[in-house]
Amino acid sequence: MADGDPEPRTPLWGNWVSTLATFIAPTTFIGALLLYFGFAYTDALYEYFGVDSATLGFSTQDYALRSAGALYVPAGTALIVALGGVVVYYAARSVGNRPAPPLRGIRVFPYGLSVCGGILFLFGMLGGFAVWPAGAMDTPLLLGGGLVLVVYGRALSFKLDGANYPAARERLALTLVAALVALSSFWATHAYAKQHGHDDAKYLANHLWLRPGVTIDTLDRLHFSDQQVRETAFPEDPRQRFRFRYEGLRLLAESKGRMFIIPENWESNSGGVLVLPTDATIRVTFSPG
Length: 289
Prior knowledge:
The protein is α+β, with helices and mostly antiparallel strands and 289 residues long. The protein has seven helices and six strands, in the order αααααααββββββ. Strands 1, 2, 3, 4, 5 and 6 form a six-stranded antiparallel sheet that branches. Strand 3 (244-255) and strand 4 (258-263) form a beta hairpin. Helix 4 (68-96) packs parallel to helix 6 and helix 4 (68-96) packs antiparallel against helix 7 (171-206). The radius of gyration is 29 Å and the shape is elongated. It starts with 11 loop residues before the first helix and ends with a strand.
């Protein structure tokens, strides 16, 4: 650049765009994860009652809010494990910076971690190919956890020698491992969300008194299985608009002007869920559970 030439200036909006993109990208990704895991949890929850989650028509905000219960345990467990790993990592770095060489037992420990990680990864692969009856969360946890232990043991061995990790020749492999661990984490969290939704559904089915009680007055007779609800037929009266009353019901869900009603003595082998519009054709009275 010649003397006197004006220095190139970054547009005033340049830094704002960069900052905004940095903020929006992870926020959008996290929002998408919350939406996905919330849908997995909700789908498993209502599937137990025979209701497809697409029928409910919940909003994206509803799914995001419902994801919280399914993510507490996975997120908390991951953070606790990460905290323990950081503590051990810095302890190994401290030992590696000392002039005296570390004890033989300490030197062997990282290699033992890597070997254990390789064995866990192998079991995960065999479970993925149905060689042994792995559960829904077993395969991703074994695959991801095994890879983490292999890399973590390698990093500890470097730190005990006072060297930096990763080495330049291992960065590509480390990137692929990180991608596989992220995929396994996503897989395991999805399986946990589904299982958590199924477990909550079973608990709710045995404790339907936790849901609000519903009394419905209708113009026409509703169909329920025998002895599931209490039906009362009103006497004909020109001043009485509604003809039938149904008691012994619980509100399972409400969305987009529809109520999903379930008998309070619902059973998985014979129960059903009734969908009613919240319009002038019915009169609804709620009561505490």
